[in-house]
Amino acid sequence: MSGDESLIDELLAGEHRALARVITKIENRSPGHRELVSRLHDHTGRAQVVGITGSPGAGKSTLVDKMAATYRERGETVGVIAIDPSSPYTGGAVLGDRIRMASNVGDMDVFFRSMSARGSLGGLSTSTTDAVKALDAFGKDRIIVETVGAGQNEVDIVRMADTVAVLVPPGSGDDVQMLKAGILEIADVFVVNKADLDGADRTVKELREMVHMRDASPMAGHHGAGPSGIDDGEDGDEERQPPIVETVAKTGEGVDELLAVLADHAEWLEATGERDARARQRYADEIRTLLRADSAALVEEELEARGGLEEYVDAVVARETDPYSVADEILAPVAEAVRERREAREN
Amino acid sequence: MSGDESLIDELLAGEHRALARVITKIENRSPGHRELVSRLHDHTGRAQVVGITGSPGAGKSTLVDKMAATYRERGETVGVIAIDPSSPYTGGAVLGDRIRMASNVGDMDVFFRSMSARGSLGGLSTSTTDAVKALDAFGKDRIIVETVGAGQNEVDIVRMADTVAVLVPPGSGDDVQMLKAGILEIADVFVVNKADLDGADRTVKELREMVHMRDASPMAGHHGAGPSGIDDGEDGDEERQPPIVETVAKTGEGVDELLAVLADHAEWLEATGERDARARQRYADEIRTLLRADSAALVEEELEARGGLEEYVDAVVARETDPYSVADEILAPVAEAVRERREAREN
What we know:
2 copies of one chain form a homodimer. Chain A is an alpha/beta fold. The first copy, chain A, folds into 2 domains: 43-220 and 234-272, Rossmann fold (3-Layer(aba) Sandwich), CATH 3.40.50.300; 306-346, no CATH class. Chain A has helices spanning 2-12, 16-28, 33-41, 60-73, 92-103, 121-138, 152-158, 173-179, 183-186, 200-216, 255-272, 274-305, 310-317, 323-346, and strands spanning 48-54, 78-84, 110-116, 142-147, 163-168, 189-192, 244-246. In chain A, helix 10 (200-216) links the parallel strand 6 and strand 7 (244-246). In chain A, helix 1 crosses helix 2 (16-28). The interface between A and B is large, with 51 and 51 residues.
């Protein structure tokens, strides 16, 4: 424990090696990682966290590298976490390459780290949240969470950011259609990257139409319509059409504009109280996710103590019992214990 | 409870109205549904359960209707459950249409039912498993579980079948590529429907290549290679290349052949012991899923008893505590109670 104490002190003192070790402990869910993250929480809340998602080939990593370099030129510190939910391997090679690239900027203040689905996907989402806390507590001004793909798992991970940018490759009419399923709702900003390619204008036009359609739809927004189904318009300020930015990551074109749009969004979050609302939602999600994972672990432990699942499966196959009865048998005593304790506490 | 007792008696006596009411209770997770399914379990295990998935437009529902009608002509009874994980609505209209269609066969022994994602998706998977048990206990010879799309959620649901058929529309080179992600592993049979269309031959050829590639790959099979990475070939009998069947659902062409292939697969499952192995895996999954859902509900109850999540979120925002500490605070007493009971039980 004292080793972890000094690790935290070193991280808070700005030592990148300590930051790297903390994130490794977080990724591996090593003993003590919970206490580490608990201790770091008090130092978080200052960084701007940007999530970047989009289908493979949209040019995410090139754009993120350019964004990081531009922040650095302005004297801001940057942390990048690249997430690959589909891979059980950590991207050691990718990580190496990109750290080298970052070093070209002349310092270590662009901290790159890739994380993958070692354990469960739920675990990856929690690990990412925890790693962002480490970067935030370290004092990074800007944190970018970048996903490899744009599937549901990626969406779940990236939505923990303050601002979510969705990258769309040009000339991808089909892709814009596919975006409708899930990704449209989370986009605070759309980026049409490779905007020098044919079809970029059409993609921008299609995105614009889609954004307008969303706003015109009766399903739009969380604050909009009352029970009458009529939007009184009074809370219209809280709705915000995602801006569409064109970039050419390879040349750096449009990157300044993108950073300006992201800064605007951060200001809007602050001014409307939306930043706080999102933080609250995030903390509620974090607590719920931990409670579920922890209680699942507790149940697993109880199952092991009872000799494992196999005997129960034998009995179910033999029609001596059934899955519901097994679940009741294992959990009824737990539920009873919880209720007894609750009553004792309340009296 | 006595109402549910007579409901079960009526179901076991072959009353379709009782079957429909039981499935409605299962779908709505109505009070008493657990006891109902518990009671039914003893009567299950005889039906052949076929899962059918594939991208929208592959012609699934037409094919399923033809399969059901053909089974009926042979004097076998049939239950069909159509699953739409993406929709929060039950397909009342679709249901109505298809029941009418079934009635054309001249009896009610093709029992159609559509189910959707009313609650959580995990819940839909459990509801589907439970509804299949109701049809099995009722005495249906053949049960078909049909999904609307072919996403991960559909894959999770359809894999509870004994035999999984994956429909592929012709001329869809891209679709065959996309199948590689997740669906290839679960396919026991491939069906190229609309086989009268251009491109069907190419699709069959591509599927054949893909199936061969899978078998040649060192990743193939669950039983294959030992720690040396060399497959000794001794357990090759357990591996089975998914056959590829061509159908034209609209005319009924190829449906007899498909049913023969499905019957072959059922025989193979039985002969190799794979049917039992799959059932065991399924029961283990069922128990784990129920334990997780039930313990999550228990945690939610405890959270409510403590005044809900909001106060905790306030404290996390104020940096007085953090999500890990909150989870520990709520679950530590539960874990302690569980361990005390375990020790008392063991002494």
